[in-house]
Specification:
Elements (H helix, E strand, L loop, with lengths): L8 H10 L10 H8 L3 H14 L2 E3 L5 E3 L1 H7 L6 H18 L2 E8 L2 E8 L14 E3 L4 H8 L3 H8 L14 H14 L2 E4 L6 E9 L5 E10 L5 H19 L5
Antiparallel strand pairs: 1-2, 3-4, 3-8, 4-5, 6-7, 7-8
Helix pairs in contact: 1-2, 2-3, 5-9, 6-8
Length: 251
């Protein structure tokens, strides 16, 4: 494989970092080069630079992982550590009330990114984890974030070919627009069986200091015992508590 020209040095460095993900958290040099679209000598040079700086780490088997230097920088993101610290007491309260999966997520483009999750051994199985990405339209937290995004973001999302993960995933733009309007009206979202057949999510917004929606909190429960209307007040209360911890809001 040859380098895709023209690409700047910064582009190639970012391609090396982008080679890593939840599907590939540990990669050999050859795998990095292939995923990044780089020749082996170029990959070797760039991986060496990133390793020396601390962005990557090499284990005893010669396999590379994301380094602590990136974790240190990532913790400075305002939608990362600070938000998680403000949210944690309320996430814990919500978990104690349900003993199911409790999640905190933010929007990144047309995806939702999970930044915190609490789960017990008896909680329903889910496919989400901290750092995971899912399309906005298919999750409870994503529906909240999409409903409170700008009209431009909403139209961009709904103009895409929307992925279906189960037979219940809503991919019809007309129906999604009605769902988003109901999320704004009711103050919470319900997403049932859209990612897995066994789970239902109830989500609510988290607002920043200026009243804008900056995150979403949710609880995911077994679909066969789910009572969304009964869960909604607790989830909304958690979102309101996190919002107040972040500063004055318009809620």
């Amino acid at each position: 494989m040859t380098d895709r020209a023209p690409r700047s040095a910064a582009d190639r460095l970012l391609a090396v970092l982008a080679a890593f993900g939840h599907a590939g958290p540990a990669l050999s040099l050859t795998e990095i080069g292939r995923r990044a679209g780089l020749t082996l000598p170029t990959a070797h040079r760039l991986v060496g630079l990133l390793t020396a700086w601390g962005a990557l780490e090499r284990d005893r088997e010669g396999v590379y992982h994301i380094g602590l230097r990136l974790w240190e920088l990532g913790s400075l993101a305002p939608r990362g550590l600070a938000l998680r610290e403000a949210a944690m007491p309320f996430l814990e309260d919500l978990y104690e009330a349900t003993h199911q999966n409790v999640q905190l997520a933010v929007r990144d483009g047309l995806d939702v990114v999970y930044i915190e999750r609490i789960s017990g051994r008896s909680a329903v199985g889910v496919r989400t984890e901290v750092g995971a990405r899912w399309p906005l339209h298919a999750t409870g937290v994503g529906l909240v974030l999409l409903a409170h995004s700008t009209p431009e973001v909403q139209e961009h999302c709904l103009d895409q070919e929307l992925a279906a993960f189960t037979p219940y995933t809503v991919t019809d733009p007309v129906r999604l627009r009605r769902i988003l309007a109901e999320v704004r009206r009711s103050g919470f979202a319900v997403s049932g069986r859209q990612i897995t057949d066994e789970a239902l999510s109830v989500a609510a917004p988290v607002r920043g200091a200026r009243g804008e929606v900056v995150a979403s909190v949710s609880v995911v429960v077994p679909v066969e015992t789910a009572a969304p209307i009964a869960l909604a007040p607790a989830v909304r209360l958690a979102g309101l508590g996190i919002s107040r911890a972040l500063g004055p809001t318009s809620t």
